[in-house]
């Protein structure tokens, strides 16, 4: 079983608030910017590697979604912040990949920061930041291959559902909802692993059980840390008085809150299941040890009187009555065998063996 991958942490100690420095893994690839514009009748999608070219294609009469795939280019993040008047503290949160999920309200935009979680033999995550402006959404994500937005892109391309009829706030909700749906998929995979591990424990296939159990407990702790603050984030979105989120979107946010509550309940259930499996594992090991100790104790109890007899007749005294007897050797063996067989039968009747 693989382990949960951890980001390489970097700390710029003493840096002033708002100074940008990327805290993720070192990367050199180009940052891809995807522009999607749509309304009920028109649709446009194109990838760019230059911000100015992307901005030239932006139309005011359409809902715009700019997805930045890569946050390691500080110059690009600063340029986007300057262009759309993003607060330096928000830009700092975008490039700090260990950021806790949260929602914040500013004068001209709102921002939701969360973790996009996907499952590839083990749990992996990448930071996702979604900025909602009037009639526009900008999303920043790390290019780790765990993109949850393909289903949203397909719905926009095909014009299915209500997304092409709604405003940018519904698009922001749809993106967050797609991320939460990936949480369900990851939990389903972990649940399958927990069931498999439970069967291995019950069938005494415990050679690697302790390592698997340890890895699963680490993954559940990691998931809980990343998902638990999401409930507070959505709560803040529902209570926010910003005009960027319409009342018509509130009902969808409430449904999103219910989904996150279900995920948190599933996480707690799986944690309890793992604790139960751990108890069973320790109990099985203790029972096996008890069986071994019981067998050794019975064997010792059988051989103690025989050892005593052998010790008595092994003493080097010159005058011992049985030494001169021609039947002494066989008589001693008869007594020792009788004692051993008698104790064995006694322990068997007592079900101690």
Helix share of residues?
40-55%
Strand order of the largest sheet: 2-1-3-7-6-5-4
How does CATH name the architecture of the largest domain? 2-Layer Sandwich
Q: What is the CATH third-level topology name of the largest domain?
A: Beta Polymerase, domain 2
* Helical/strand content category: alpha+beta
Strand residue content = 5-15%
Q: How many distinct beta strands?
A: 7
Please describe the structure with a list of short key phrases separated by commas or semicolons:
alpha+beta, Beta Polymerase, domain 2, Methane Monooxygenase Hydroxylase, Chain G, domain 1, seven-stranded mixed beta sheet, 8 helices, 53% helix, disordered N terminus
What would you note in describing this structure?
A 7-stranded mixed sheet has the order 2-1-3-7-6-5-4, sandwiched between helices. It has helices spanning 51-56, 74-84, 88-95, 150-158, 168-202, 209-239, 247-312, 328-349, and strands at 32-38, 43-48, 63-69, 102-105, 110-119, 123-133, 136-141. With 353 residues, the protein is an alpha+beta fold. It folds into 2 domains: 32-282, Beta Polymerase, domain 2 (2-Layer Sandwich); 284-349, Up-down Bundle (Methane Monooxygenase Hydroxylase, Chain G, domain 1). Helix 5 packs antiparallel against helix 6 (209-239) and helix 7 packs antiparallel against helix 8. The longest helix is centred in the last third of the chain and has 66 residues, at 247-312.
